[in-house]
Amino acid sequence: MGAAQQRSSMPDGGRAVEARQGAVVAVGGAIAVDAALWVLFPRTFAELPTAFWVMAALALAVDARPYVVAGRRAGSVILPSICFTFGIALAWGFVPGVAVQLAAMAVAGVRMRQSPRRAVHLAMQHAVALAAAAVLAGLAGLRLDADPDWDDALVTVAAAAVWMAGRYTLDALTTRILGGARKRREAQRWSLELFATAALLLLGPVVLAAAQVGLALVPLVLLALHAVHRMVRSAGEYERAGRVDALTGLPNRRALQASVAECDAGRGAHRPERRLALLLLDLDRFRTVNDALGHAHGDRLLVQVAQRLAAVVPPHDLVVRLGGDEFAVLATRVDGPGSARRIAAHLADALRSPFALDGLVIDVSASIGIALQAERGGDGASLLRQAEAAMYDAKQRGAQYAVYARDAAHHTPDLTLLADLRRALQQEPAEGLMLYYQPQIAIATGEVVGVEALLRWRHPDRGMVGPEELLRVVEPTPVMRLLTSRVLREVIGRLAAWRDSGRPIRASVNVSVRDLHATDIAEEIQDLLLRYAVPADLLQLEITESALMADPHRVLDTITRLDRMGVAISLDDFGTGYSSLQHLRRLPISEVKIDRSFVLGMAAHTGDAAIVRSVIALADSLGLRVVAEGVEDERTWRLLAADGCHAAQGWFHARPMPAEAFGEWLARYRPLRPGREPGALATT
């Protein structure tokens, strides 16, 4: 299959035969009809002036370059000859006009390699359109000469409108009768076709007026025709660019949506047993290639994957790159789940052979989700969501592919939970969403130096939803930004309340890489800080080390802007994401938080204790604060103090609590320093 567009399902030899047949029909039909008209109306042709023959010759010449509208059916063509034939029909009647139009269409038909059916279809459309315009002009008594008046101009516009109504009404009727339900046109392309057609038609009277002044002026209309051609061509190039992935040359998500609609419209009485199937491929461990070899090599691998998929997919199907490392195949001749599974196995086999990049052999596999269109009228977005759900199901089960099952229990919770969360976020206050705060204690002084805001959600039916499950569902979706915005607003509002009560304290908020990829998060935070009059240094954002290190370059700009505003960045779960020291040095990070898995075991395992000491020493050398999470006993707390850790967070000091309970706890809290006797900590 070609990379940039879907190929026709007809073999090249068949298309060539059909094109030859279409040329015979177009040329032979034009000769036969024009000869019959010449025999039946000899006086009409004998009395035609020189201006007619000049315009007729130009009509044939310009139809050597017909205008095909991008993204429409193959028959959606604008013939520039209508500029001349419309004027001929208004000035000298229907018979000369249709004779020239058929001859010009024969030239265009050969040029476009039309099928016989399409040639006849277009001939009927233009004959009916010219007849309608000529009848209106005759009834209105239109006579175009060198001195037209306003009535002539109005009749000309009305005749052009009747021409367009006649052509496109017949087009719609014949398409519905012969080809089933017609797909809805996109408004932009439909407007372009109408505008270009109207411009060509209304040039006809201008050409006639120029002919009255002097025939030498008539060919000058070719400049105007060239301008219309450039307009249609530019719009077509823009349309094609919007449907093609720039990296691989494959069709993109937009092209997939259009193809699903087109294929669905084409289904019907011809092959009702055929179904559409969408196979979504997500490359496994592609991020590893990017991290190890760089994005340039990753892009080259994606291009090779695209080429291999395009080579094994049959011409009647469509290969699409959705973005990132996701590809899709739209299969148009699927009999059922078994047929779709065979296609998935074929695609997996195609990727099994290693790929070569600069001498490196790279193995690639993919998880494939399959969604079958259940009935006509479905849209591409629904099919894509189902394929995505099946793909995640395949990943979770370690299977190579999975078929979407509408009633499968393992799909429902995630989708329902996401919908319920979106609904909760749209309410004021958000139903069931709560923020808990856990203190962070300076180990050297025992003072409370900050809190971490922790999200809790009590679902109306499922009860308390754990943060791990909640983030797993929401983080890959746009709902994550809605959730982060709500949390930021509530935390900054709470900071303002604490400051007004005389207890200014820093709060840390967890954000995702998806949040930092959004270009507006810095502006959103700045607006909230100004609205609540909260100093920027009272807010800190936490992002996990593994997420940040996956793509540090994309978030660098956002983190830098936040740092310049005075908002600190804390690297959470430090020690689990294999941070590059170069990234730690370049990124404006103020704090690292040692992952609780190391802190919990440091009192019993020398290995964990050594890791914690190394992290503290590394952060200290880079000028970063260190916070230890998971401090649950006094011995761990004292070991951290001996190692020089700056702050501790964990149940040893306090559990997470609602804002009101935190205020009461803070009023009772008395600082505990490592040098005091064990057991001296005030109870909560």
From TrEMBL:
Gene3D superfamilies in the record: 3.30.70.270, EAL domain
Every EAL domain range: 414-670
Pfam families xref list: EAL, GGDEF
InterPro entries per the UniProt record, alphabetical: Biofilm_reg_signaling (IPR052155), EAL_dom (IPR001633), EAL_sf (IPR035919), GGDEF_dom (IPR000160), Nucleotide_cyclase (IPR029787), Rev_trsase/Diguanyl_cyclase (IPR043128)
Key words of the record: Membrane, Transmembrane, Transmembrane helix
Chain segments annotated as transmembrane: 20-41, 77-110, 122-142, 154-173, 194-225
GGDEF domain mapped to chain residues: 274-407
CDD domains assigned: EAL, GGDEF
PANTHER family the record matches: BIOFILM ARCHITECTURE MAINTENANCE PROTEIN MBAA (PTHR44757:SF2), DIGUANYLATE CYCLASE DGCP (PTHR44757)
Name of the protein in question: Diguanylate cyclase/phosphodiesterase
Taxonomic source organism: Pseudosporangium ferrugineum
Biological classification of the source: Bacteria, Bacillati, Actinomycetota, Actinomycetes, Micromonosporales
